[in-house]
Every structure is written in C-alpha cells, then in structure tokens.
Design brief:
Strand content: 35-45%
Radius of gyration: 11 Å
Largest sheet: 5 strands, antiparallel
Strand order of the largest sheet: 4-3-2-1-7
Order of helices and strands: HEEEEHEEE
Shape: globular
Number of strands: 7
Helix content: 10-25%
Length: about 80
C-alpha cells in the first residue's frame, strides 16, 4: 500500500491493528491527545500525532519511518 492509501485509511478509521516489519501495532484515531500509535499488547506508551501524515512521517520502527514501510503493512483489523 502507498503512503497516501495508508493515510486515507487512518483518517477514515477508528481502530487499526496491523503488522509491519515483525511488529504488531495499533492506531487509535479517537484519542484526546491526537492519533495514537503503540505496539499491541505492550506497556509502551502511545505516541500521539496531529494527523495521519505526521504519524507516518514521525513514527519510526528501527531507523525507518512508517511512511517508508507502508508497502509492507498488513492490516489485521480495521474499524
């Protein structure tokens, strides 16, 4: 999937569970602090972003941003 396609899913979604690069992640778009992303089933705190593009450009997995990994994203649950 492209960055634009993933950004569109984030902007239109509510809860998104997905896998990428061996990580299981969750995005919640309804949080008061902004769009939140964290590892699934983790005590890791959510990172919050103002919009989908900021999340994709700002959230890193290793040395790569999520925007750079969009073509490897596998959505496992979407609402």
């Amino acid at each position: 999937m492209t960055k634009a396609e993933f950004a569109n899913l984030i902007e239109k979604g509510r809860d998104i569970l997905f896998d990428v690069d061996g990580q299981h992640l969750v995005i919640f778009t309804w949080m008061d602090e902004g769009i939140g992303i964290s590892k699934q089933d983790s005590d890791e705190p959510f990172q919050h972003f103002a919009d989908a593009n900021a999340l994709l450009d700002g959230y890193k997995i290793g040395y790569l941003t999520l925007a750079q990994l969009c073509d490897k994203v596998v959505i496992t649950d979407y609402s």
